[in-house]
Amino acid sequence: MASKSKDTRKTSKKKVAVAKKSSSGSKNAPVNKITRPCDKFTNRELSWLEFNNRILHEARDTKNPLLERLNFLAITASNLDEFYIVRVASLRDMASVNFEEKDIAGMTVSEQLTSIDAKTRKLMTLMYSTYGRSLVPSLKQENIFISDYDELDERLKSHCDEYFKTELYPILTPMAVDQSRPFPLIYNRMLNMCVKLDGKGIVDTHRTDDNDIVYATLQIPNVVSRLYKLTGDNGEIILVPIESIIRANLHLLFTSQKVLGSACYRVMRNADLDIDEDEAEDLLKEIEEQVRKRRYGEIIRLEVEDDIEPEILDYIIMELKINKDDIFRVGGPIDLTFLSKVNKLVGKDRFNDLRYPAHAPAAPSMFDESLDNIFDQIRKKDRLVHHPYESFEPVLEFVKQAARDPQVLAIKQTLYRVSDESPIIASLLEAANNGKQVMVLVELKARFDEQNNINWAKKLENAGCHVIYGLVGLKTHSKITLVVRKEEDGIRRYLHLATGNYNDITAKIYTDIGLFTASESFGEDASEFFNMLSGYSIPSTWHKLVAAPIWMKDYFIRNIRREAKNASEGKPAKIIAKINSLVDGKVINELYNASNAGVKIELIVRGICCLKAGVPGLSENITVRSITGRFLEHSRIFMFYNGGKEDIYLASADWMPRNLDRRVELMFPIEDEDCRSRIKEILDVEINDTIRATYLLPDGNYHKLDLRGKVKLDSQQELIRLADEAVAGRMVEEERLAFEPAVAPD
């Protein structure tokens, strides 16, 4: 393995400090006779791999439309890539400095890496089996072929050759390797091809050996589609991976040498940035530099084709200085993320039966049909919007109208992830040009969105917005917009608070909930929150909002303990939580205590879950379900029975140490009765899901319900139906009111 740089060792020490803090939850006093950490907790990395396995299950499930199954496999592959370059990379850093402390489940770093490797290899075998034995044959039955160059007839080969000469050849850069030209830098997650050549007859004054074999490498371009589309004689669609076209035409790239062999390969590099904000004089420049350095990170994994020549593999290993234990052989095309492009390539007007039915978000039922003067509507009552079942348009209109309304004095907003052509940003720029006070917190440390956020931050600053980059050592993950408006009766504050990002693209596929309110107490808290971000003000308490890392974890624990106390006194007690991940040891221990006290706990956890469910004497009153489907479950909802009062909250945070201890997050109560009814309806539908939900067993595995004798309910499809039904019901009501005869006065 290549030696680590001084900078990497420094980064590792910071990660070790974080790891020590994160593992502290397991030191709580045991709640029962179960004392071994592995009996109480599941390792977070192995739980994440189990989650990715659930995504893979969607790719294998023939009840899903075929083209959607391809997309699920692409998501599985993309998830695994990110897991390695971030989570596994972090563990490798810890191993490099001999970090010995065990995780929440009692596993050492070495044990985690060994288990991850074994589980990943099993997962990848299943991924490629799904691709080669299930998806490719199923596509053929629909006259869609993913075929290598060698499988084509002469006519189609001729088309590929012409494509190579006109499109690929001009952008390819074959790089010979010799004494004067060292092996080039291989970028993270880029597909490459190593070419073995006959070196006889090469005139090279730099050669000092008599070896008859020489090598070259070239990067497979990512500026063109990975798949070249052809049409067969009978109208069938044929998709050819460009690496197979390049391989067939290597003789045109190496005209004076005989090509003896070739093989594709890809490396994964450590991409987990760890910024030393205390020492960075300019945070923006520091993050820009760290993003640039991602391409040079330590190699932690090498992917090669299963049939690679041993001689070529040995050469790649030697040049990359990689450990043989870090090599993954794959039985198919390297990097299956290209499958996400197949749906678009086959054409939007064909194969509709192989896709989910088209979904257009419904008009938000809690807003009038027209969003003109959105502030009048919000002032009348709180409004809730549930994406992607309902349109994201009210959020866009809220900021756009604020930018143009002469009565609006200021707009303040936090931005974590936004789209490449964000209408939110466009409205903020317009607001600044219109002379309004615009303050934006742009989180530069949003992983893999750093460069995008840097670009937006510069544009906002150039337009005259006040741009801040958050607090030292903390990511700002909260989702909040504050609009300050001067009205006849004085200054009024309008708020949008949400569980998801201000991203109009992901709002079409992520399930999130947003609240609009003009409540004065909410507005006062919002002003305090933004003052805290931009200055040094930290109030001792707020009226409505609950912030992390200041109060949120303690607030959750108090609510869980209250339910446990009520249950122990024989009172009804219940907790429902819908989150993305459950990792925090202290919260989990409190849930165990509550379960043992008799509290009924229903958890909807999409991804990582370190809690063990249904274990006698530990968690027999806890049920954990995970929902996967066409939409990514992203909203965070918390409900505590509280003696019948039913406290309901939405939040930007999950139950993870990073959210509760190392991020700026916001949780807010839902008080309006109509809004509360909407939230309870969402929870009720998801808890009763029998199609999309998988249930966590005591042994850590997940299983689908046996549907015999049960009502079949797909929660996502049901929520689509309810959103459409609500709009239809509102239209009927509006029509009834419009034509209702007037009653004669007495």
What does this structure look like?
The protein has 746 residues and is α/β, with parallel strands linked by helices. The protein is 38% helix and 20% strand. The protein is built from 21 helices and 27 strands. The strands form 4 sheets. Strands 14, 18, 19, 20, 21, 23, 24, 25, 26 and 27 form a 10-stranded mixed beta sheet that branches. β19 (574-579), α18 (585-597) and β20 form a beta-alpha-beta unit. α4 (66-96) runs antiparallel to α5 and α20 runs antiparallel to α21 (715-738). The longest helix has 33 residues, at 109-141. The relative contact order is 0.09. The model is unreliable at 1-13, 23-32 and 277-281 (pLDDT under 50).
Strand content: 15-25%
How would you sum up the global shape?
A: globular
- State the low-pLDDT regions, or none: 1-13, 23-32, 277-281
Query: What does the main sheet amount to?
Result: 10 strands, mixed
User: What's the multimeric state?
Assistant: single chain
**Count of separate DSSP helical elements:** 21
Radius of gyration: 28 Å
Q: Roughly how much helix do the residues carry, as a percent range?
A: 25-40%
Task: Count every beta strand, where a strand is a DSSP E run of 2 or more residues.
Answer: 27
Distance between the termini: 93 Å
Overall average pLDDT = 89
Helix-and-strand structural type: alpha/beta
